[in-house]
């Protein structure tokens, strides 16, 4: 009996569980280790914050999916990997032996300012963010807020800022707080073309969202944000959506990493230092032809990961993960309107939001019905 351990409940592992459900292997014992029973789909998070979706509509039941895949569900956090003994050590004391290990644990917040853990609502982990957002919304309704600051000028931060501005205007009307975005990049949405950036700036003006590019945050305090240039802004609530940091488990476990600490993997999604360990999603970086930290690549990698795990368990040949760097991006702008981007192209409209809505619902429904 071979042992497969799936560490983490990320998007790529959804495809692995789906594959195991459709093609069970009685010679493989599967365990999934993740601290949460539900996966909140990141693509629908801005829509949840904006009030377009319930939390249930954005969620995938990992316990149910693991059951369909004939996998044991171990609800805890993996804290260390012993690659020599081929074991995963968990926070609750559980030790799981493996023949093949797959890791899809995402990234952790990249925090480079004082006071963030104490005074800011951090976007990841999503479950903690969701609880914090519910408290923030209740506070805004009961006691009001002067302003909301979002730190992070990439797609995640900008979308959340739009969603918050829309929701608070809908809930509080003229008493809605001012929303602003801080980015240490010279421009917001640095990963997109200039046309897309201008569309975002135009839409932000509709909500009177302040965009402060080239403004690195040095400290988040109780009721304020202080920038690197010592300017200080009042902030009734601060959300941290800046960057992706590497999970500490890889360096602490002696696995090869890239210069930022992400697990180093090859073209087959396998660890460059330890054969039999595979990874996908934001927690890993390909040594050759690295890809941006975007959820679309975890989704694209899912089927290849599933095939390579089967091959590794059977001693068969591995498949190279080949993908184009360009990808369709649809950025929601608060109300049911979105900006689209693909390479040098850009567009926007309510129809673009409907397109995004159909894609996101189809993705969640796929793994709800499995």
TrEMBL record:
InterPro entries, per the entry: FAD/NAD-bd_sf, FAD/NAD-binding_dom, NADH-Q_oxidoreductase, Pyridine_nucleo_diS_OxRdtase_N
Top enzyme category: oxidoreductase
Cofactor section: FAD
Domain of life: Bacteria
Gene Ontology MF annotations: NAD(P)H dehydrogenase (quinone) activity
A Pfam cross-reference name: Pyr_redox_2
Listed EC numbers: 1.6.99.-
Record-given protein name: NADH dehydrogenase-like protein YjlD
GO biological process, one term: aerobic electron transport chain
Keywords: FAD, Flavoprotein, Oxidoreductase
Source organism (scientific name): Usitatibacter rugosus
Lineage, opening ranks: Bacteria, Pseudomonadati, Pseudomonadota, Betaproteobacteria, Nitrosomonadales
Residues annotated as domain FAD/NAD(P)-binding: 3-287
SUPFAM superfamilies xref list: FAD/NAD(P)-binding domain
